[in-house]
Design brief:
Elements: H1 3-13, H2 20-31, E1 36-37, H3 38-48, H4 54-66, E2 70-74, E3 82-86, E4 92-96, E5 102-105, H5 108-121, E6 131-134, H6 137-144
The protein binds zinc ion (ZN) (2 copies).
One zinc ion binds at residues 96, 98-99, 101, 135-136, 138-139.
């Protein structure tokens, strides 16, 4: 399902509408591949709608989070910045400790491990979070030179 369609349904299911500002924020989230925080989302949204406020962005992100449209992730080491992305395909994150770059990856092995564990321990696993830290190739090179 297209993100916009799915989001409209999720909003309607909780008696909400897809307003123009919500639509705009969804577009920003869908188009950017980066893991933006609220301020990053605000900066991009403001380019298209100068009337949008940071408070609206925060409020809208909360609505999106509540309705399961976006997922909130904490990807920095200090655990202070919240990043948002459209909820969807299972994927995992690697954060570079040098430059802060976030790399997404998919891994069938992690899904296998979770399926296996669910069976073995009779668990109903709802979500799997895997987050790795380390150094990206560029930062590893800086270490050597
Ligand atoms: Zn790096
Ligand atoms: Zn991600």
């Amino acid at each position: 399902m297209a993100p916009l369609e799915g989001a409209t349904q999720r909003l309607q299911a909780t008696g909400r509408r897809l307003t123009n500002q919500r639509r705009l924020l969804l577009k920003v989230l869908t188009e950017s591949q980066a893991h933006l925080d609220a301020e990053g989302i605000y900066a991009l949204a403001k380019e298209r709608d100068p009337n949008i406020s940071l408070a609206t962005v925060y409020r809208t992100l909360n609505v999106f989070k509540e309705t399961g449209i976006v997922q909130e992730r904490i990807l920095d080491r200090e655990g202070q910045r919240r990043h948002y992305e459209i909820a969807g395909k299972a994927h995992y994150h690697f954060t570079c400790l040098g430059c802060g770059r976030v790399i997404e990856f998919e891994s069938p092995m992690i899904e296998q491990a979770s399926t296996e564990l669910a069976k073995r321990l009779d668990l109903d696993i709802v979500q799997t979070r895997v987050h790795m830290d380390g150094y990206c190739p560029a930062c590893q090179e800086k270490e050597i030179t």
